[in-house]
Amino acid sequence: MPYVLGVDVGTSRTAAAVCRQTGSTWADAETVRLGEHYVPHSPEGF
Question: Is 46 inside any structural domain?
């Protein structure tokens, strides 16, 4: 199962999202929890 990992390393926080290939299309991106200071947000910024 192919996937893409996007990581945004900022000065005050770090965010990540993963997107998996399902057949010939890609699923919607899902944010990934990176630690106890997790702040959910829209993955469209990746």
Answer: no
pLDDT confidence tier of residue 41, bands split at 50, 70 and 90: low
Residue 26 belongs to some domain of the structure: yes
- List pLDDT tens digits, range 10-32: 888 888 999 999 889 999 999 98
Cα–Cα distance for residue pair 21/13, rounded to 1 Å = 27
Number of domains the chain contains: 1
Distance (Å, whole) CA 9 – CA 30? 17
Token duo for residue 22: 């399902």
